[in-house]
């Protein structure tokens, strides 16, 4: 099957992150089995979703891993002018949810499998398809556990997130945290007898803003990233029931998007210290039962692969460009890298179309990715 035919199949599976991806995984498993390739299916605890891992070519250490996520973001509330789960071709563009992010890449990889099988590969080619990437890079963690048990660890991982096939070697990390302030309610006429959870949440959020300003100081900036500094942002807040009640509860969610050299946990710890040392004593002076609790929502590490690493040099060879750049969005690359597999990012399509209504990939990008994978197959036939 061609990459376009495979993309048509893949887009037809509604793999929105809240849904099961098992039908897609079964399809890929069947496709690979038809080519004589066995794969390993790594389920989640509920067995409602799964990662897929397969190896082609010789066993042994090293080799290249091609990695993509099978899930897509929801189409709810988006105004699509064509059906999101049916591939529609028009004027050199292929429309459908996930065409750019990132079923286009997976389709090219699957279409290239017969070619890889026909080549005298001197090193293994690893294929990895994950689930729940779009909701915090959750699924790939069990895949990495499984990989750590394999005797053959890939030497390089290529993540096919859409970069218009430009070579990308870095992105920021992210940490998302929920903060719950438990105050003490009372009639607002006696406000000093209560502990106003909204007001304490506001102090915490203000503290986050100040930390964000310090992190943006010129001497901390890194021009490779946009924006060139670590950012801190509060995105959701709720609390209070009526104006004449001092609110007992307020919770808010914030995120820290870090330069690879900054530590998001340090921001979280600094906020907790502020809560412990400054705010809780004031709150406890009024009511001993008041609390401030922090709980992680999601996160992934940043990626900062060295331009002279073997992974980056391979990517330069495949793309014909060593104009390495970074992307603003996160990928599973940081987790692969953390697990000891140097990672780079390069895939067909553009994230400008990702997550939007009428998401598309151009036929030209799909063809170019087919070509890139041919060059990879040739490179993998070289004698070590
Ligand atoms: Zn993606």
Automatic annotation (TrEMBL):
CDD domains: M20_ArgE (cd03894). Residues 169-280 form the Peptidase M20 dimerisation domain. Keywords: Amino-acid biosynthesis, Arginine biosynthesis, Cobalt, Cytoplasm, Hydrolase, Metal-binding, Zinc. GO terms for biological process: L-arginine biosynthetic process. Gene3D superfamilies: 3.30.70.360, Zn peptidases. SUPFAM superfamilies: Bacterial exopeptidase dimerisation domain (SSF55031), Zn-dependent exopeptidases (SSF53187). GO terms for molecular function: acetylornithine deacetylase activity; metal ion binding. PANTHER family: ACETYLORNITHINE DEACETYLASE (PTHR43808), N-ACETYL-L-CITRULLINE DEACETYLASE (PTHR43808:SF31). Belongs to the peptidase M20A family. ArgE subfamily. This is Acetylornithine deacetylase. It comes from Superficieibacter electus. The gene is argE.
